[in-house]
Amino acid sequence: MNKRDYVIEVKDLTKCFGYKKALNRINLFLKKGECLAIFGPNGAGKTTLIHILSSLMRPTSGQVMIYGYDLQRDGEEVRKRIGVISHQTFLYDELTVFENLKFYGRMYDVNEANKRIEEVLERVGLSDCKSDQVQTLSRGMKQRLSLARAILHKPSILLLDEPYAGLDQNGKESLKGILEDFIESGGTTIMTSHDLERALEVCSQVAIMSFGIIVFTEDISRIKRCEFQNLYFNFTERRSYL
To answer: Taking the CA atoms of the chain, what radius of gyration do you get in angstroms?
Structure first.
């Protein structure tokens, strides 16, 4: 880790698809225990950012450092330290809930995997469904299982792309509790969300993205929630006319 103790360092990150810049020189710096919530309209580049940070996509240029490891050069070391929720569930429909987590337990070499699987299933409210095939689960239950998968190996960083999508009220409360515990224990989080109310409950920093650029960022303690909500909605309304 460098002298400023940043857990996540994103420097001039750019991603191009042909002539279109999905990300344009993004810079982010997070320390241990910080939670950044990124908001913005569809097509702003939020999902692309999460995909790159989680090593699912390569950037066109720029650098990402996680705990001092270069994402492109030391991808295996980085992946050990992160848990990811994406629009893709990364679940296997033909396997049961337990079998899916067992597979990821072997992948991440989780100690006492069966015990840990029981713990995370209890945490996300799926203990009664562990023998069910994933293809029989509702969207919300799959989202809960994705959360269980993401925290199974006790990562120190969570990268969450619209984690509240598809969750019912109980699921959202469960996620909130998990995030609060994770942050309190020193975990670092970046999440994208359209659910301002929920994301603002747990984040320590906020950002707004548009056209691949971070157009606003601030510590949550320095801005009133109502002011940020008005800023976001006003910005999004303007963006819809562009």
So the answer is: 18
Q: Count of alpha carbons within 13 Å of 16, Cβ hemisphere only? A: 8
| pLDDT tens profile 84-103 | 999 888 999 999 999 999 99
Name the DSSP letter for residue 110.
Answer: -
How many beta carbons lie within 10 A of that of residue 63, not counting itself? 14
Residue range 21-38: mean pLDDT, rounded: 96
8 Å CB contact between 163 and 109: no
Tell me the C-alpha distance between 11 and 194, whole Å.
25
Q: What are phi and psi of 185, to 5 degrees?
A: -80, 0
Where does residue 127 rank: exposed (0-12), middle (13-18), buried (19+ CB within 10 A)? Answer: middle
pTM: 0.91
Which of 200, 203, 202, 204 has its CA nearest to residue 232?
A: 200
Residue 225, pLDDT > 80, answer: no
Q: Are 34 and 217 in contact, with CB atoms under 8 Å apart?
A: no
pLDDT given at position 242: 41
**Residue type at 109 in one-letter notation:** D
Q: What are phi and psi of 153, to 5 degrees?
A: -95, 15
DSSP 132: S
d(CA 161, CA 28): 16
Asked whether 95 and 134 are in contact (CB, 8 A), the reply is: yes
